[in-house]
Amino acid sequence: MNIFKVIKKVLSEPTDFFTRVKQGKNHVGFSWVYFALLSLFNTILGSIMFIIDYYIFLPTLEKDPIFGKLFSAAFSELTILAYITKMSLNYIGGLILIFLIVGVTFIWIKMFRGKSTYSKTFELVSYAQTPSLLFGWLPVVGSFSIVWSCILLVIGTEQIHELNRTRTIIMYLIPLLLFVGLITLFWIFIVPGVVDILSKTIVPTVGK
Questions:
Q1: Domain ranges of the chain
Q2: How many Å apart are CA 70 and CA 195, to the nearest integer?
Q3: 3-class DSSP state of 182
Q4: Which of 7, 29, 88, 182 has its Cβ near the most Cβ atoms within 10 Å?
Q5: Which of 119, 113, 118 is nearest to 158 (CA)?
Q6: Among 71-75, 100-104, 174-178, whose mean pLDDT is lowest?
Q7: How far apart are CA 161 and CA 109, in angstroms?
Q8: Residue 109 above 60 pLDDT?
């Protein structure tokens, strides 16, 4: 299989592509390599964007009377080597974690009477992430690419696990809404306290 042809098919003809995935042989090995290469692309480009932000935009943020000092304190010990090491570990961890993520996704889909296998679910998850891995490193566009990947996940689940669209959307909305709820609670009850503590400890220290 040709990676560039797969990318084109996933993005331009997702329904037909995932139908072929369902009907074809298992290609877990190829889909994992596909995920690994696109993740590497995303990691490299994302790291370059971070370095650009670090050297161009951070000095501007540091001029902010409160948050600038918080940013300065947070990034004062960061070096390019440390960042590259961190991103490399994250990349390797992602290549391992994908098997667990697929396992949880497979069990969840099965609870909603999905009809396919773990292998096909692995291909589904790997290919559905194509937009977010290709464009996720871009400012603004990255957010839309995540939505695009979610749409591909719905389309692929319909085709591979033979679920109707309504059931598929509800199935994925449940964990999404739970996640959004937890994040909302975190920002309401935890973040204000953390910001208050940091403003009383880090900012005076940095200001000395």
A1: 3-175
A2: 9
A3: helix
A4: 7
A5: 113
A6: 71-75
A7: 8
A8: yes
Output the CA–CA distances (angstroms, integers) from residue 114 to 12, 20, 56, 162, 177, in the order listed. 25, 17, 48, 7, 21
| Burial of residue 129 (number of CB atoms within 10 Å: 0-12, 13-18, 19+) | buried
CA-to-CA dists, residue 6 to 14, 34, 46, 70, 195, angstroms: 10, 9, 23, 44, 45
Task: List the Cα angle 124/181/133 in 5-degree steps.
Answer: 30
- The span from the CA of 38 to the CA of 41, in Å, is 5
* pLDDT greater at residue 49 or residue 103: 103
Per-residue model confidence as pLDDT tens digits over 42-65: 999 988 888 777 776 666 665 665
Q: Is the pLDDT of residue 4 over 60?
A: yes
What mean pLDDT is reported for the chain?
Answer: 86
Which tokens in the block code for residue 113? 């009477």
